Amino acid sequence: MKLSAADTSRQRQRQACRPRRMSGLMSETKRNTTPADGPGSVDFGYQQVPKDQKAQRVREVFDSVADKYDLMNDLMSVGVHRLWKRFALGQTGLRPGQSALDVAGGTGDLAAGMAGQVGEGGFVVLSDINAAMLEVGRDRLLDRGLMRNVRFSIANAECLPFEDESFDCVTIGFGLRNVTDKPAALASMHRVLKPGGRLLVLEFSKPVLPGLKPIYDVYSFSVLPWLGKRVTGDSDSYQYLAESIRRFPDQQALLALMREAGLEDCSHHNLSGGIVALHKGFKY
Question: What is the pTM of this model?
Answer without folding.
Answer: 0.82
